[in-house]
Amino acid sequence: MKNKIKIGIDLDDTIVSFYKEFINFCKERYEVELDALALSKDFFNSFGSKEKTKRVLKEFVDEGKHYESNVFKDFKKVFNDLERKFQIYFITSRSYDLRGRTKKFLEAELGRENLNINYIHDYPEKTKSFFCKKEGINILIDDHIPNIIEASSKGIKVFVFDQPWNRDIKEGENIIRVKNWEEVLEKLN
Ligand SMILES: [Mg+2]
User: Fold this and answer.
1) Which of 95-109, 127-141, 152-166 is the least confident region?
2) From the CA of 7, how far away is ligand 1's center (Å)?
3) Mean pLDDT of 169-177
4) In angstroms, how far is CA 153 from the centroid of its own chain?
5) Domain extent at residue 112
6) Which pLDDT tens digit goes with each residue over 13-45?
7) Residue 1 CA to ligand 1 centre (angstroms)
8) Same-domain pairing of 155 and 169
9) Residues 115, 168: one domain?
10) Ligand 1: distance of its center to the CA of 98 in Å?
């Protein structure tokens, strides 16, 4: 079998809605208005303090209702095509305690077993580029500015999944903006 090109795909806010759901949760539960831009810059201090943010995040995650209901529709639509043409590595910075659930949820949503889900905290450098280099992945799709800057500076082509918090990032040699998953597929082809 011909070797497929490897691609790395982030989870939160690239294929699964996270900030929006977390903002809704905080508003409903605590009547606190959070802002996605602020979350993207300093998530763990977004709810007053680090301890408090962690506690609220744990509630949000434990209840699961919002957290595990939103794989982007356009991703589901192109997933078969993507899988046929590319070797897919999901790459996330989610914490250890979420592993079992992340796997179960994604496999149910995407109708597959044994998805290739990787956790950057398993590696000494804890960066997406470290994992990509190790596995020979030259393309990463991500929404988070630090990841985009870090990986593109190491020579990885980064598809910036368009979100309000990453619009300051300009296109460049290794930076390509995409507004949805149909466009990712088109540009990959
Ligand atoms: Mg993300």
Assistant:
1) 95-109
2) 15
3) 96
4) 19
5) 5-16+71-188
6) 999 999 999 999 999 999 999 999 999 999 999
7) 32
8) yes
9) yes
10) 15
- The verdict on 166 and 141 lying in the same domain is yes
Q: What's the pLDDT at 1?
A: 56
5 contacts: CB under 8 Å, gap ≥ 6: 85, 86, 87, 138, 139
Are both 75 and 154 inside the same structural domain?
yes
CA of 32 to the centre of ligand 1 (A): 22
Residues 89 and 165 in one domain: yes
* 2 CA from centroid of ligand 1 (Å): 30
| Residue 159 in tokens | 């598809």
Interval between CA 125 and ligand 1 midpoint (Å) = 18
Instruction: Please give the distance, rounded to the nearest whole angstrom, from the Cα atom of residue 142 to the centre of ligand 1.
Output: 6
Ligand 1 centroid distance, CA of 86 (Å) = 20
**DSSP 8-state secondary structure symbol assigned to residue 104:** H
Q: Domain total for the chain?
A: 2
Of 170, 178, 103, 176, nearest in space to 138 by CA: 176
Q: What is the CATH number of the domain that holds 85?
A: 3.40.50.1000
Indicate yes or no: pTM above 0.85. Answer: yes
Position 71 scores a pLDDT of 93
